[in-house]
Amino acid sequence: MAPPRIISGKAGGIRLRSVPGSGTRPITDRVKEALFNIIGPEIEGASFLDLFAGTGSVGIEALSRGASYVCFLDTSRQAIATIRENLRLTHLEQGAEVLHMDAFVFLKRSPTRAFDFIFIAPPQYKGLWEKALQTLDSNPAWLSPDGTVIVQIDPNEYKPLEQLTHLEEIEQRHYGSTELVFYRCKTTQEASAAASYEED
Fold it and tell me: Using DSSP, how many helices (H) and how many strands (E) does the chain show?
């Protein structure tokens, strides 16, 4: 697979470094372009959380297109080094924060800010996307009230998560062997009803 590139914006056309080895699952340029076509102008000035960030390709694309702040998380030292190198290559260090830590530990913390977009693309076939969504659902202040969660998975991994209290699925998009699933916050009334149902 060719190295990922930045498709549009301030760093458009720049090729990124890949993380050594086969432990990461890079997003294809086709899927990334489709994702940012869906997000559209909402990325301008937005805050973006790139969990399981790998090369940092998605978060760096967000910065290139005008996001004001992107936080990158990964547990791999090689991934963290690659993200820092890719930020240097694209001259997009400003507005970027790179954290070498576990996504689940991060999501369980008391939120320090609300993100407009949260991107979740963990290693495949381990149920980690479900765990990440459920952890976020238990601590929803990480997501702004009108924010969007985007999950990247293989279509075979997908299943409805009906037990979510604060988040709801709003859309799915399929691109060959990749599926993007979009979630948002439920209204206060919907969330209260879901929480009441769980308590019964």
Answer: 6, 7
